[in-house]
Design goal:
Layout: H1 3-6, E1 9-10, E2 16-19, E3 24-29, E4 32-37, E5 43-47, E6 50-54, H2 60-81, E7 84-91, E8 96-100, E9 103-107, E10 114-117, E11 122-128, E12 131-136, H3 139-151, E13 162-165
Antiparallel strand pairs: 1-6, 2-3, 3-4, 5-6, 7-12, 7-13, 8-9, 9-10, 11-12
Length: 180
């Protein structure tokens, strides 16, 4: 049995969880509301502040959905209570970020600045020219938007220039050596 799927999810105080008959889970908390459609095959029960996800059989489809569904619900509860954030660092001479209204403007060595519109439910902050902070309650949206920003200039292995996640290790290569 799935170790992750078996773990009960504790629902903190101040968080309201609703499960309808078609397994549409709605989580309402201090930071907002999230909804997710969970597979109808699985059974979700709410007992005394704990959510338990169970599967009907041991076939491959149900096993794969079991841990996934439990983690999705847990991420929703964490999102509406604490929220999620990703920090990006910009490394390189002349590379910088700025915020103009609801747009993130990146200068990454192209002939033009890259402008990215903030999606709904995502808050982008630029504390300094070389740091970008992406916040939101939906873990998927935060990670996806951070990946899109990073994709404009991924870190290259020779000088390490580009946009990287905070704490990301960039493996460096030596480069060419001259003839002696």
């Amino acid at each position: 049995m799935s170790r992750i799927g078996r773990k009960p999810i504790t629902v903190p105080s101040g968080v309201e969880v609703k499960i309808d008959d078609k397994n549409l889970v709605t989580v309402k908390g201090p930071k907002g509301t999230l909804t997710e459609q969970i597979s109808k095959d699985l059974k979700i029960e709410l007992n005394e502040g704990e959510l338990v996800v169970t599967r009907p059989t041991d076939n491959k489809k149900h096993r794969s959905l079991h841990g996934l569904s439990r983690t999705l619900i847990d991420n929703m509860i964490t999102g509406v209570t604490e929220g999620y954030s990703k920090k990006l660092e910009i490394v390189g001479v002349g590379y910088r970020a700025a915020k103009q209204g609801k747009k993130l403007v990146l200068s990454l060595g192209f002939s033009h600045p890259v402008e990215m519109e903030d999606p709904d439910g995502i808050e982008v902050e630029v504390p300094s020219q070389t740091e970008i902070l992406i916040k939101g309650i939906n873990k998927q949206l935060v990670g996806n938007y951070a990946a899109k920003v990073r994709a404009w200039r991924e870190p290259e292995p020779y000088k390490g220039k580009g946009i990287r996640y905070s704490g990301e290790y960039v493996r460096r290569k030596e480069g060419k050596t001259g003839k002696k």
